[in-house]
Every structure is written in C-alpha cells, then in structure tokens.
Amino acid sequence: MSSNLPKVAWIGLGIMGSPMSENLIRAGYDVTGHTLEQDKVDRLVAAGGTGAASIADAVREADVVVTMVPASPQVEAVAYGPDGILENARPGTLLIDMSSITPQTSVDLARNAKDKGIRVLDAPVSGGEAGAVEAVLSIMVGGEQTDFDAAQPLLRALGRTIVLCGPHGSGQTVKAANQLIVAVNIQACAEAVVFLEKSGVDLAAALDVLNGGLAGSTVLTRKKDNFLKRDFAPGFRIDLHHKDMGIVTDAARTVGAALPVGAVVAQLVASLRAQGDGGLDHSALLRSVERLSGAQV
C-alpha cells in the first residue's frame, strides 16, 4: 500500500487490539502485526495488514509502534531484551503503549526508550470491545506534547475522546481512576438488578427508566443486555479488571488517597475470580451479588 501515513507495527492482537488495528488499516495505514496466536495474525492479514513472525520483524521498518497487551509484565516482555522493541526499532520511532499498566512501568519505559532515541506515549483506552470496534474509545495519554501532536491523527482513527493528561504515566493514572469508576458502577448496577428482580419488577422496563435519569450511565447502556440475558461473554474480562483494581488500590496507597468503596469492590472482583469466573465479562459481578443473595449460580 503506498501511503504518506506512517508505517505502523502493532504488537498484541487480542479482544481490543484486533479491531483497533483493523480500524487503522481502514483509515489507510500500512499495519504490520505480531501476536502470540497465529490465528490472530491471520485475521489481521485477512483485513489487509501484514503478519510478522517476531517483534523484531514487525518493528524494524516502523515509524510508529503500538502495543496492546494485557499487563505490565507483557509490556516489559515485548519492550525489553534482544528481541524486544527497544533493541530493534529505529531511533526516532514513536512507541504508543495502549495497554493498561502501572504508571511506574510507563515512566520506566519512557526513560529507557529515551536512551535509544525512541519516543514514548502511554495511551490506555476505555470503551471496551464495542468501543474498539466502533472506533469511539476514550484515550488518555501521558507524555510530551510534541509526541502527542504527532500521534493525534493515528489516535483519531481509534477513538473519539483523546486527551493529553500530563507527563509519562499520567494516562495510566487516569485509566486506573476510570477502572475504579467502572467497577463501582457495575457493582451498583448489579445490586440494583438483584434487588429489582427479587421485588418482582419488570427488569427491562426498570433499567430503561433508570438509564433515562440521573442513575443512567455508559456502563448501564453498554451492560444492560448482559444483565438481562445473563450473557457474560467477555468484552472485558474479570481477570483484567482484577489486575486494574490492583493498580488503582496500589497507586492510591502510594499517593495517600483513601478508596473505601473501591477497596470493597476490588475484593468482590477478586472473589469472583477466585470462584472461577475470571474469564467472564466484568458485568458478571452480577453473579457475585446473586450468590450473596442466596442464588445458586
């Protein structure tokens, strides 16, 4: 594909990474992808991208490298070492890490990349699988203004709300706050669902009217059908929200912020995972409330 757009290497083609990389292809970008599962690479190729057998092969010719992997250890695994991004990308490359990781991991990555002449933005996202597919993600960015400006056209192909939140790590801090709000919101919705059902109310009607008032939220809009149908196919897995609640509770402790409700919801997420529901969507917090209310689930 002949294009004046920067050449992109995309590392991590999971629930979020696959549709996001395909949106870049649709926007005219030349995308070379690498991930651990060959069928995900095949999906990228079928969408018009190029597959790479290794991270080194993917990033060697890239102007921009995007990473979208589950957590800090995976970011470190793809960034560092002889086969990693920092050793194989060209000086001047812009590395945009869209994973949700600890703020400190982002700060360290930016510092280590600077020694190689590689610019870094942390750019975690909110909006889940649906937001990724529809290219309406909220993208919270940490890093330098000039790098943010350079990344804007690419990020606009992926999301709708794109904001530079401050220096390296700031995007991750805002994402941690996002995950706190989402988890508490899902928990409140789940408790309301069980209360409504046990009261014999028409649940669909109740959720519609609640969502039209002050109790309405993007969470309720996105997750209403999950609650009604007990459909917990993962858009965002409990395992990952468990990881994120660990990030926000740890970061809050570091800065001296109390999270009394967040800490309780973090434990509820942890207990759901311990009961074997880690692979389900985070709307499955409903199952935890049902168990506590005497249901066999």
UniProtKB/TrEMBL annotation:
InterPro entries: 6-PGluconate_DH-like_C_sf (IPR008927), 6PGD_dom2 (IPR013328), 6PGDH_NADP-bd (IPR006115), HIBADH-like_NADP-bd (IPR029154), HIBADH-related (IPR015815), NAD(P)-bd_dom_sf (IPR036291), Tartro_sem_red (IPR006398). Gene3D superfamilies: N-(1-d-carboxylethyl)-l-norvaline Dehydrogenase, domain 2 (1.10.1040.10), NAD(P)-binding Rossmann-like Domain (3.40.50.720). GO terms for molecular function: 2-hydroxy-3-oxopropionate reductase activity. This is 2-hydroxy-3-oxopropionate reductase. The keyword Membrane does not apply. Its EC number is 1.1.1.60. The lineage of its organism: Bacteria, Bacillati, Actinomycetota, Actinomycetes, Kitasatosporales. The keyword Transmembrane helix does not apply. Residues 7-166 form the 6-phosphogluconate dehydrogenase NADP-binding domain. PANTHER family: 3-HYDROXYISOBUTYRATE DEHYDROGENASE-LIKE 1, MITOCHONDRIAL-RELATED. Belongs to the HIBADH-related family. Keywords: NAD, Oxidoreductase. It holds the Pfam family NAD_binding_2. Residues 169-287 form the 3-hydroxyisobutyrate dehydrogenase-like NAD-binding domain. SUPFAM superfamilies: 6-phosphogluconate dehydrogenase C-terminal domain-like, NAD(P)-binding Rossmann-fold domains.
